[in-house]
Amino acid sequence: MMNNLANILGKLNVHALPSSPITAGAVIGGSIAVLAVIALITYKKRWTWLYKEWITTTNHKKIGVMYIIVAVLMLLRGASDAGMMRLQQATSVGSAHGLLSPNMFQQVVSAHGTIMIFFAGMGLMFGLINLVLPLMIGARDVAFPFMNSTSFWLFAFGAVLINLSLGIGEFSAAGWLAYPPLSELKYSPGVGVDYWIWSLQIAGIGSLLSGINFIVTILKMRAPGMTLMKMPMFAWSVLGAMTLVAFAFPILTVTLTLLALDRTLGMHFFSAGYGGNAMMYINLIWAWGHPEVYILILPAFGIFSEIVSTFSSKRLFGYKSMVWAIWAIVFLSYGVWLHHFFTMGAGANVNAVFGIATMLIAVPTGVKIFNWLFTMYRGRIRFTSPMIWFMGFVFLFTMGGVAGVLMAVPPIDFQLHNSLFLVAHFHTMIVSGVLFGYFAGITYWFPKTFGFRLNEKLGKYAAYCWIVGFILAFLPLYILGIMGATRRMDHYSASLGWQPLFIVAGIGASIIFIGLGLQILQVIVSIWKRNETKDLSGDPWSARTLEWSTTSPPPEYNFALLPVVNQRDAYWASKHSKTKTENDSYSPIYSPKNTSSGFFIGLFSLTIGFSIIWHIWWLLIIGFLGLVLTIILRTTSGEHEKVITVSQIEKIEIPLNGGTKA
Amino acid sequence: MSKKSKILIILLPIILILAVSVWYLSGQNVAVLQPAGVIGQKERSLIFIALILSAVVVLPVYALTILIAWKYREGNTSAKYTPDWDHSRVLETIWWGIPLIIITILSVITWNSSHALDPYQAIASKVKPIQVQVVALDWKWLFIYPKQHIASVNKFVIPLNTPISFNITSDTVMNSFWLPNLGGQIYAMPGMSTTLHLMANKAGSYYGSSANISGKGFSGMNFTADAVSSNSYNSWISSLAKSKSVLNLNNYNKLALPSTYNRVSYYKNVPDGLFENIIMKYMEPITNGSSI
Questions:
Q1: Cα A162 from chain centroid?
Q2: A window 288-347, beta carbon within 8 A of B
Q3: Considering the domain boundaries, does residue A327 fall inside one?
Q4: Which of A169, A217, A276, A470 has a CA between 20 and 30 Å from the CA of residue B207?
Q5: What confidence tier does B193 reach under pLDDT thresholds 50, 70, 90?
Q6: pTM assigned to the model
């Protein structure tokens, strides 16, 4: 009987439950939080509302909000991992061995990187793009709303899967990119690497679909008159980033599949020996991994372009330069992946070529910084909290860029590779570049989405904490790298003299946590006092682009009448022109119907991933059949669009326009 | 608060932090900046050259950011305001051009230094090089002196001013052999041999580690490299030739079993071709045994 049960559940048994008090605590705490949310929804009788308004929605604004909620939760999980790492490295010295065992520490390290890039970074990015891109180009939704919902649910269930590893089994301890042979079955026999593979595979396919969706949206759905060279810079940066997604993510999908074949079916693509070649994996994963960095940073650059221009009350300087800079970065970012492993022993010619290509990226990036500065030059700069994030970004990102140029020189990289200097470098780029950019973007577009602004004072304090905390947390890591400290150490000898610097880094991390706390407080206070910061104008920042021309929050269809564009900064121009364009009368709007198919595609993908991880083959069949059936049902069901009639539009629009018909 | 005291409040902590860091670091081994070998010294000069060239762009950026942000703040209504001025061919040419020139200079430096400091290239010297074979194991480093038929774990000794040719492999997952005081690192990979050439010119005992995560014992995978006079080196070699343990195949397979935080140990009578056999093990077709 017990034997049969064991077979039914594959590799899954009672030993998969957490054994360490830290994980057990996290699992219990997490479960209580989930149960509390479920209880609250049941108590408030909000299940139907949740299902109709959110789970089945195909509206890009709601999908954007859901992306950001999941991403913020994942950001908090990634941050608590970071906190544990700082604590471990500040205390695990000499005879002391810290709170975490080496294996636990390595799981935390791997989870931190994976979660921050795939779920916090990508989630915030897709969330913001969903929120504003269609509005910004004067569209009523994305090109493929159902696919958009599917992308989100694949992302969300990928996040669910990675969090399941906390309570059921274990996570990968092979670093965030799981280099073989360490990630092969022989050296990582547990389910950790499988969790890593399948949560990324599910979320990654969602990202690929999103990439295609936004490319088509930008190319096909712009408002009449908005030629490519009249698009807002954010739209350009998204087009660049999504082009990278479309070409880079298939590489990730294939690489993960090959590793999964090695681990699940005993193949030898990347194994040590038997003809496997781990160097092939390292090339493939970085052929995705390097563009990925630019996928995250380009939209952040776009956000800064919008913010700097708005808060300087001035046109963006060097628009054409900016566009060329984006495409130079897109092009170059495919040709630099080898700089992640100069130390693998390629010849001097190869290393030098990739080193030079890497340095070249500094040119268009530098151009962008100069253009932002000259957007501010002769402007009227309002130092709102998004601008504080921007100022922090300019100083830190430039410093991180110098560190990057250093490491692009192969002989220098031989000394700094895989050291804490490298860790400090890429955190400078990703925290001060990507994260600061997204925080600024969230603050900037929050009133558009919810109809009221975030508390400015708390926002500024949070930004100051992040900037100061960042400097204190990461300058010591630069120094430690130069002193010879490698990354991912769970313990070091006291005689090396590293501990004081690790303690300073820990203090810096604590200040960042205060910043995070202030941001949570900011959201709570802002909701509490939302009547004080209500945005009735739809344009709280005196901004320039089309998303501010509609109400805050915008109606379901975004624009009752599609805007007509004659020049860049179309909304700014229309505010300042004396001749008002003649209004047409409303016509019916076709809007996508809600669908639960996206949710179920995600759910069945989760089932497939989970069953392969644990070798539960009957569940795999159910998951696969469910997935196929959902797709068949969706494609064969009739009408996917509903019509919003003129009278429905008038009902919404007339009160907004002060009682007059359009 | 007056303007001066505001600036002081910002500057004082910065100066204080700088002073404390300099004082602290002066007593420490800042390996990359205090190299004890020719390669490391050249790498350090490269770091300084690249830093100075970057400063040509970065310092103006910092100065401009502060100046522009201050001058064109909203409150300063006397500053010029040109809301529609968004293009200047001259300015844009400058900031495409100057970074491009600097990167071109850096590219030449990169090309030359990548070849001059290619880890595979032997160091020119009148002294005959010494070969050391390095094997990454779970979780310790094995150093084999093939000519001398001796081996050691987690420690090795080299003579000063003598080129050392390291041949590096792994009998487990990928690791990276990093000796920052002498300069540079190269991956250790199973089934392959990589090469690193270093030469010490300052006597001392230097810390080295694996720079690539390799499993639960990874943090204990450290070693010491002693750079000593050739007399001391010779006596170290002869003392090892008298050590108790023999590194035959049987003992090697025992040593290769996973273990953490290994002490330094020494071996004599290392058979010919051990290093090559360790590599060849991964070239065999599928067999049941995994030992040599």
A1: 15
A2: 312-321, 341, 343-345, 347
A3: yes
A4: A470
A5: very high
A6: 0.95
